[in-house]
Design brief:
DNA-binding, homodimer, Arc Repressor Mutant, subunit A, 2 strands, alpha+beta, 92 residues, 13% strand
Chain lengths: 92, 92
DNA sequence: TTGTATTATTTATATATTTAAATAAAGCGG
DNA sequence: CCGCTTTATTTAAATATATAAATAATACAA
């Protein structure tokens, strides 16, 4: 049977968290001017680094973001178009 | 502080379930020809009535759907435009 | 009124998610 | 090499979610 919405719900579930929505917003909007590193994200939010890394891994595992490492830093960016579209619907 | 994404994540979380996505799809697409009652929904899916009712209450509590009762039946319909838009993004 | 159909709620259990601290790993500067 | 910075992972505990059975509530029909 088709139309089981398994993948789709997994995508939504990964996005459906206040912190992760905020992270996606940061990566979409402030990535050009400010940084895209974990550290840059952490400076914006007020939560421990490990928590941020964990959220980033959740997003990465679903293919919503991707990270490119240079030195010790990792620059994350949003690669799933649907995530960006959904964010625009939520905050038009 | 603004932009906490609390409401937005609650909306997504309510939608982020295979069964609930399917229910929303049914209500959006088959509501004209087929029925919009809990029973009509149950005939499409293969899960117990109580489970469907519970999913419907979750969607209703977030204002995603609304139900109008006539007799013993309740006709549900999607009232949140964002939910419909998100579904269209997921299944274009 | 009695029974039947439809939907909602309660209860219990299993599973998943969230969080932060602690620790590990990996690269760079001195 | 040593210490520092940056990021990831593991662990444990708290909280939330999902599921189905059982039960309740309601309206209608006979």
């Amino acid at each position: 049977m088709k139309n089981k919405y398994k993948d789709e719900s997994a995508l939504l579930k990964a996005i459906a968290h206040p912190m992760r929505l905020k992270i996606i917003e940061l990566l979409l909007l402030e990535l050009p001017t400010e940084g895209c590193s974990v550290n840059a994200i952490q400076k914006k939010l007020t939560i421990p680094q490990s928590t941020i890394s964990q959220h980033l891994q959740i997003l990465k595992n679903k293919g919503i973001i991707d990270g490119s490492k240079t030195g010790t830093r990792v620059c994350y960016r949003v690669i799933d178009k649907r995530a960006a579209k959904i964010l625009k619907i939520l905050k038009p």
